[in-house]
Amino acid sequence: MKRPRALRWMGLVFLLSIMLLAMTGCSENIIVLNPKGPIAEQQRDLMIISTLLCCIVIVPVLILTAVIIWRYRDKKGRKAAYTPEWEHSTKLELIWWGIPVLIILMLAIITVKATYDLEPSKPIASSEKPLTVQVTSLNWKWLFQYPEQGIASVNELKIPEDVPIRFEITADSPMNSFWIPQLGGQMYAMSGMAMTLYLQADEVGEYWGSGANFTGTDFAKMYFDVEATSKEEFDAWVEEVKTDSPKLTLEGYKQLREPSTSEVQSYSAFPEGLFEMTVTKYAASHNHGLSWKNTQNFEFEDQVTR
Protein backbone atom coordinates (compact mmCIF):
# COMPACT_ATOMS: atom_id res chain seq x y z
CA MET A 1 0.00 0.00 0.00
CA LYS A 2 2.82 2.41 0.78
CA ARG A 3 4.51 1.97 -2.59
CA PRO A 4 1.47 2.88 -4.74
CA ARG A 5 0.80 5.93 -2.56
CA ALA A 6 4.42 7.03 -2.91
CA LEU A 7 4.24 6.53 -6.67
CA ARG A 8 1.10 8.64 -6.85
CA TRP A 9 2.77 11.49 -4.98
CA MET A 10 5.85 11.21 -7.19
CA GLY A 11 3.67 11.34 -10.27
CA LEU A 12 1.84 14.40 -8.96
CA VAL A 13 5.10 16.20 -8.19
CA PHE A 14 6.42 15.30 -11.65
CA LEU A 15 3.32 16.67 -13.40
CA LEU A 16 3.45 19.89 -11.38
CA SER A 17 7.14 20.30 -12.25
CA ILE A 18 6.42 19.88 -15.96
CA MET A 19 3.61 22.45 -15.76
CA LEU A 20 5.82 24.96 -13.98
CA LEU A 21 8.63 24.50 -16.51
CA ALA A 22 6.19 24.94 -19.38
CA MET A 23 4.69 28.07 -17.83
CA THR A 24 8.05 29.76 -17.28
CA GLY A 25 8.47 30.32 -21.00
CA CYS A 26 4.84 30.53 -22.08
CA SER A 27 4.83 34.27 -22.58
CA GLU A 28 7.67 33.97 -25.10
CA ASN A 29 6.33 30.90 -26.94
CA ILE A 30 2.70 32.05 -27.09
CA ILE A 31 2.92 35.12 -29.27
CA VAL A 32 -0.36 36.67 -28.11
CA LEU A 33 1.22 36.86 -24.63
CA ASN A 34 4.34 38.55 -26.03
CA PRO A 35 2.94 41.84 -27.39
CA LYS A 36 5.02 44.36 -29.30
CA GLY A 37 2.52 47.19 -29.57
CA PRO A 38 0.11 49.23 -27.41
CA ILE A 39 -3.06 47.53 -28.71
CA ALA A 40 -1.70 44.02 -28.20
CA GLU A 41 -0.51 44.96 -24.71
CA GLN A 42 -3.98 46.09 -23.66
CA GLN A 43 -5.52 42.95 -25.14
CA ARG A 44 -2.95 40.77 -23.32
CA ASP A 45 -3.73 42.49 -20.02
CA LEU A 46 -7.47 42.00 -20.62
CA MET A 47 -6.95 38.26 -21.20
CA ILE A 48 -4.83 37.88 -18.06
CA ILE A 49 -7.25 39.85 -15.85
CA SER A 50 -10.24 37.86 -17.16
CA THR A 51 -8.42 34.56 -16.62
CA LEU A 52 -7.42 35.44 -13.06
CA LEU A 53 -10.95 36.52 -12.17
CA CYS A 54 -12.36 33.28 -13.55
CA CYS A 55 -9.73 31.31 -11.61
CA ILE A 56 -11.18 32.71 -8.36
CA VAL A 57 -14.16 30.43 -9.02
CA ILE A 58 -12.64 27.62 -11.06
CA VAL A 59 -9.61 26.79 -8.90
CA PRO A 60 -11.51 26.41 -5.58
CA VAL A 61 -14.17 24.31 -7.34
CA LEU A 62 -11.55 21.96 -8.77
CA ILE A 63 -9.78 21.67 -5.40
CA LEU A 64 -13.04 21.06 -3.53
CA THR A 65 -14.08 18.46 -6.10
CA ALA A 66 -10.87 16.49 -5.49
CA VAL A 67 -11.19 16.88 -1.70
CA ILE A 68 -14.83 15.71 -1.67
CA ILE A 69 -14.11 12.70 -3.88
CA TRP A 70 -11.20 11.72 -1.62
CA ARG A 71 -12.93 12.38 1.69
CA TYR A 72 -16.22 10.68 0.87
CA ARG A 73 -14.83 7.75 -1.07
CA ASP A 74 -16.12 4.26 -0.29
CA LYS A 75 -13.71 2.96 2.34
CA LYS A 76 -13.96 0.92 5.50
CA GLY A 77 -13.58 2.98 8.65
CA ARG A 78 -14.45 6.20 6.84
CA LYS A 79 -14.79 9.02 9.40
CA ALA A 80 -16.48 11.62 7.16
CA ALA A 81 -19.85 12.74 8.53
CA TYR A 82 -22.89 11.29 6.81
CA THR A 83 -25.83 13.73 6.83
CA PRO A 84 -28.39 12.64 4.23
CA GLU A 85 -31.04 15.05 5.53
CA TRP A 86 -28.88 18.19 5.06
CA GLU A 87 -30.29 20.45 2.36
CA HIS A 88 -29.53 24.13 2.98
CA SER A 89 -26.87 26.53 4.24
CA THR A 90 -27.39 30.27 3.92
CA LYS A 91 -23.68 30.93 4.37
CA LEU A 92 -22.69 28.52 1.59
CA GLU A 93 -25.42 29.83 -0.71
CA LEU A 94 -24.09 33.38 -0.28
CA ILE A 95 -20.57 32.21 -1.06
CA TRP A 96 -21.22 30.16 -4.19
CA TRP A 97 -23.73 32.62 -5.62
CA GLY A 98 -22.35 35.92 -4.34
CA ILE A 99 -18.75 35.54 -5.46
CA PRO A 100 -19.60 34.54 -9.08
CA VAL A 101 -22.10 37.41 -9.36
CA LEU A 102 -19.44 39.90 -8.20
CA ILE A 103 -16.93 38.44 -10.66
CA ILE A 104 -19.42 38.67 -13.53
CA LEU A 105 -20.09 42.32 -12.66
CA MET A 106 -16.36 43.05 -12.59
CA LEU A 107 -15.85 41.28 -15.93
CA ALA A 108 -18.77 43.22 -17.42
CA ILE A 109 -17.32 46.58 -16.34
CA ILE A 110 -13.81 45.68 -17.58
CA THR A 111 -15.14 44.32 -20.88
CA VAL A 112 -17.32 47.35 -21.62
CA LYS A 113 -14.44 49.73 -20.89
CA ALA A 114 -12.04 47.70 -23.04
CA THR A 115 -14.59 47.52 -25.86
CA TYR A 116 -14.65 51.31 -26.13
CA ASP A 117 -10.91 51.77 -25.52
CA LEU A 118 -9.96 49.16 -28.13
CA GLU A 119 -12.48 50.14 -30.81
CA PRO A 120 -10.52 49.16 -33.99
CA SER A 121 -11.16 52.39 -35.91
CA LYS A 122 -10.15 54.57 -32.96
CA PRO A 123 -6.83 56.34 -33.76
CA ILE A 124 -3.85 55.62 -31.52
CA ALA A 125 -2.70 58.66 -29.57
CA SER A 126 0.70 59.63 -30.98
CA SER A 127 2.71 62.64 -32.04
CA GLU A 128 3.49 60.80 -35.29
CA LYS A 129 1.26 61.05 -38.34
CA PRO A 130 -0.45 57.68 -39.04
CA LEU A 131 0.75 55.68 -42.04
CA THR A 132 -2.06 54.33 -44.22
CA VAL A 133 -1.80 50.79 -45.58
CA GLN A 134 -4.60 49.40 -47.74
CA VAL A 135 -4.98 45.64 -47.31
CA THR A 136 -6.74 43.40 -49.82
CA SER A 137 -7.35 39.73 -49.12
CA LEU A 138 -6.94 37.60 -52.25
CA ASN A 139 -7.02 33.84 -52.72
CA TRP A 140 -4.47 32.92 -51.24
CA LYS A 141 -2.30 35.97 -50.74
CA TRP A 142 -2.33 39.48 -49.25
CA LEU A 143 -1.91 42.67 -51.27
CA PHE A 144 -0.63 45.71 -49.36
CA GLN A 145 -0.90 49.15 -50.95
CA TYR A 146 0.82 52.24 -49.59
CA PRO A 147 -1.20 55.12 -51.13
CA GLU A 148 1.01 57.88 -49.72
CA GLN A 149 4.19 56.20 -50.99
CA GLY A 150 2.65 54.94 -54.24
CA ILE A 151 4.00 51.39 -53.87
CA ALA A 152 2.52 47.95 -53.22
CA SER A 153 3.67 44.53 -52.05
CA VAL A 154 2.38 40.97 -51.83
CA ASN A 155 2.82 38.94 -48.63
CA GLU A 156 5.28 41.49 -47.24
CA LEU A 157 4.37 44.30 -44.86
CA LYS A 158 6.99 46.81 -43.76
CA ILE A 159 6.15 49.48 -41.24
CA PRO A 160 8.16 52.06 -39.27
CA GLU A 161 8.37 51.59 -35.50
CA ASP A 162 6.48 53.90 -33.12
CA VAL A 163 4.22 55.09 -35.96
CA PRO A 164 0.46 54.35 -35.87
CA ILE A 165 -0.59 52.28 -38.87
CA ARG A 166 -4.06 52.88 -40.27
CA PHE A 167 -5.06 49.67 -42.03
CA GLU A 168 -7.95 49.86 -44.50
CA ILE A 169 -9.03 46.26 -45.03
CA THR A 170 -11.18 44.62 -47.70
CA ALA A 171 -11.35 41.42 -49.73
CA ASP A 172 -11.49 40.56 -53.42
CA SER A 173 -12.12 36.94 -52.44
CA PRO A 174 -14.09 35.01 -49.79
CA MET A 175 -14.15 36.58 -46.33
CA ASN A 176 -10.91 36.31 -44.39
CA SER A 177 -9.48 37.64 -41.14
CA PHE A 178 -6.42 39.90 -41.02
CA TRP A 179 -4.27 39.13 -37.97
CA ILE A 180 -0.88 40.17 -36.61
CA PRO A 181 -0.97 38.55 -33.13
CA GLN A 182 1.88 40.53 -31.55
CA LEU A 183 0.42 43.86 -32.66
CA GLY A 184 -3.29 43.36 -32.08
CA GLY A 185 -6.44 41.36 -32.63
CA GLN A 186 -8.14 40.20 -35.78
CA MET A 187 -10.17 42.26 -38.23
CA TYR A 188 -12.37 40.66 -40.88
CA ALA A 189 -11.65 41.33 -44.53
CA MET A 190 -14.93 41.23 -46.46
CA SER A 191 -15.80 41.92 -50.05
CA GLY A 192 -17.92 45.01 -50.50
CA MET A 193 -16.79 46.44 -47.16
CA ALA A 194 -13.78 48.40 -45.94
CA MET A 195 -12.79 48.06 -42.29
CA THR A 196 -10.39 50.31 -40.38
CA LEU A 197 -7.86 48.97 -37.91
CA TYR A 198 -5.19 50.93 -36.05
CA LEU A 199 -2.07 49.10 -34.89
CA GLN A 200 1.46 50.11 -33.92
CA ALA A 201 4.80 48.36 -33.41
CA ASP A 202 6.76 49.71 -30.45
CA GLU A 203 10.08 48.16 -31.42
CA VAL A 204 12.05 46.99 -34.41
CA GLY A 205 11.50 43.32 -35.19
CA GLU A 206 9.99 40.67 -37.42
CA TYR A 207 6.46 39.51 -36.72
CA TRP A 208 4.09 36.92 -38.12
CA GLY A 209 0.86 37.78 -39.84
CA SER A 210 -1.78 35.52 -41.34
CA GLY A 211 -5.26 34.98 -42.61
CA ALA A 212 -7.18 33.56 -39.64
CA ASN A 213 -10.25 32.36 -41.51
CA PHE A 214 -10.76 29.23 -43.62
CA THR A 215 -10.85 30.21 -47.30
CA GLY A 216 -10.25 27.01 -49.20
CA THR A 217 -7.45 24.78 -50.45
CA ASP A 218 -4.35 26.83 -49.63
CA PHE A 219 -5.65 28.92 -46.72
CA ALA A 220 -2.85 27.53 -44.50
CA LYS A 221 -0.29 29.23 -46.77
CA MET A 222 -1.97 32.60 -46.48
CA TYR A 223 0.52 34.22 -44.14
CA PHE A 224 2.77 37.22 -44.55
CA ASP A 225 5.95 38.70 -43.12
CA VAL A 226 5.72 41.83 -41.00
CA GLU A 227 8.89 43.82 -40.42
CA ALA A 228 8.99 46.87 -38.18
CA THR A 229 12.01 49.00 -39.03
CA SER A 230 13.42 52.39 -38.21
CA LYS A 231 11.97 55.30 -40.16
CA GLU A 232 15.20 55.63 -42.12
CA GLU A 233 15.15 51.97 -43.13
CA PHE A 234 11.50 52.20 -44.09
CA ASP A 235 12.17 55.22 -46.33
CA ALA A 236 15.12 53.38 -47.89
CA TRP A 237 12.91 50.35 -48.60
CA VAL A 238 10.30 52.57 -50.27
CA GLU A 239 12.95 54.10 -52.53
CA GLU A 240 14.33 50.66 -53.36
CA VAL A 241 10.88 49.39 -54.36
CA LYS A 242 10.27 52.48 -56.51
CA THR A 243 13.60 51.99 -58.26
CA ASP A 244 13.86 48.23 -58.71
CA SER A 245 10.29 46.86 -58.85
CA PRO A 246 7.85 46.69 -61.78
CA LYS A 247 4.50 48.47 -61.86
CA LEU A 248 1.26 46.68 -61.00
CA THR A 249 -1.03 47.11 -63.99
CA LEU A 250 -4.75 46.38 -64.30
CA GLU A 251 -3.95 43.20 -66.19
CA GLY A 252 -1.39 42.29 -63.53
CA TYR A 253 -3.98 42.76 -60.79
CA LYS A 254 -6.46 40.61 -62.70
CA GLN A 255 -3.88 37.80 -62.73
CA LEU A 256 -2.95 38.41 -59.10
CA ARG A 257 -6.49 37.97 -57.86
CA GLU A 258 -6.79 34.53 -59.47
CA PRO A 259 -6.76 31.75 -56.84
CA SER A 260 -3.10 30.83 -56.27
CA THR A 261 -0.32 31.12 -53.73
CA SER A 262 2.43 33.68 -54.17
CA GLU A 263 5.94 34.49 -53.09
CA VAL A 264 6.86 37.94 -51.79
CA GLN A 265 6.52 40.56 -54.53
CA SER A 266 6.75 44.35 -54.68
CA TYR A 267 5.49 46.97 -57.12
CA SER A 268 6.73 50.49 -57.78
CA ALA A 269 3.22 51.71 -58.63
CA PHE A 270 -0.39 50.54 -58.85
CA PRO A 271 -3.55 51.78 -60.61
CA GLU A 272 -5.01 54.84 -58.95
CA GLY A 273 -8.09 54.05 -56.88
CA LEU A 274 -7.49 50.28 -57.01
CA PHE A 275 -8.48 49.68 -53.38
CA GLU A 276 -11.59 51.87 -53.52
CA MET A 277 -12.78 50.23 -56.70
CA THR A 278 -12.24 46.77 -55.25
CA VAL A 279 -14.61 47.73 -52.44
CA THR A 280 -17.26 49.51 -54.47
CA LYS A 281 -17.50 46.95 -57.26
CA TYR A 282 -19.26 44.66 -54.76
CA ALA A 283 -21.15 47.23 -52.68
CA ALA A 284 -20.82 50.98 -52.61
CA SER A 285 -22.61 51.71 -49.36
CA HIS A 286 -20.72 49.84 -46.62
CA ASN A 287 -17.58 51.11 -44.91
CA HIS A 288 -16.25 51.27 -41.38
CA GLY A 289 -14.44 54.45 -40.43
CA LEU A 290 -13.73 55.43 -44.04
CA SER A 291 -14.79 58.26 -46.29
CA TRP A 292 -13.78 58.47 -49.93
CA LYS A 293 -14.32 60.92 -52.72
CA ASN A 294 -15.40 59.69 -56.14
CA THR A 295 -15.69 56.06 -55.06
CA GLN A 296 -18.09 55.22 -57.85
CA ASN A 297 -16.07 54.33 -60.92
CA PHE A 298 -17.55 51.37 -62.72
CA GLU A 299 -15.41 51.97 -65.79
CA PHE A 300 -12.49 50.70 -63.73
CA GLU A 301 -14.34 47.49 -62.90
CA ASP A 302 -15.16 46.97 -66.56
CA GLN A 303 -11.46 47.23 -67.41
CA VAL A 304 -10.45 44.77 -64.72
CA THR A 305 -13.07 42.12 -65.45
CA ARG A 306 -12.80 42.00 -69.23
UniProtKB/TrEMBL annotation:
Xref: InterPro entries: CcO_II, CcO_II-like_C, COX_ARM, Cupredoxin, CuRO_UO_II, Cyt_c_oxidase_su2_TM_dom, Cyt_c_oxidase_su2_TM_sf, Cyt_o_ubiquinol_oxidase_su2
Domain Cytochrome oxidase subunit II transmembrane region profile, residue spans: 24-122
Catalytic activity: 2 a quinol + O2 = 2 a quinone + 2 H2O
EC number(s) recorded for this UniProt protein: 1.10.3.-
Subcellular location(s) per record: Cell membrane
Name of the top EC class for this enzyme: oxidoreductase
Keyword entries, A-Z: Cell membrane, Electron transport, Lipoprotein, Membrane, Oxidoreductase, Palmitate, Respiratory chain, Signal, Transmembrane, Transmembrane helix, Transport
Lipid bilayer topology: Multi-pass membrane protein
GO cellular component, one term: plasma membrane
One Pfam family of this chain: COX2_TM
Domain of life: Bacteria
An example Gene Ontology molecular-function term: copper ion binding
Domain Cytochrome oxidase subunit II copper A binding: from-to ranges: 128-240
GO biological process, alphabetically ordered: ATP synthesis coupled electron transport
Transmembrane segments: 46-70, 94-116
General function of this protein: Catalyzes quinol oxidation with the concomitant reduction of oxygen to water. Subunit II transfers the electrons from a quinol to the binuclear center of the catalytic subunit I.
The family this protein is said to belong to: Belongs to the cytochrome c oxidase subunit 2 family.
Name of the protein: Quinol oxidase subunit 2
Organism for this UniProt entry: Paenibacillus glucanolyticus
